[in-house]
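Example (one chain per record):
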Amino acid sequence: MRGMSNRKLVPLCGAAEVAPGAAVRAEAQGRSYAVYNVGGNIYVTQDECTHGPGYLSEGYVLDDEIECPFHQGRFHIPSGRATCAPATEPLKVWKVAVVDGKVCIDPEEHGSGE
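Predicted structure:
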């Protein structure tokens, strides 16, 4: 992927492990991530909800949003923007590169849906 150095990329999971319309939990370097397949596009956000103790990888993918299983707050998956209360703080999101069938990110290069 443009702008991402292969030296910094960390593999999270196989792209084939993430079914369309699903989210899976991936762990790397002591952190948890939620990996999504939305319409054939792969996205990665932090796994922890910004509102409470819920894990988004255990939530419900609704079109391009993820609903937290704890308090039903929602986030726009591609941007991390909070879209439904009680969630108000955006998620961290990472650019994704699929390298040799693996979903990879640079853990130090993230943004948020602000």
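Caption: Residues 10-112 form a domain with the Rieske Iron-sulfur Protein fold (CATH 2.102.10.10).
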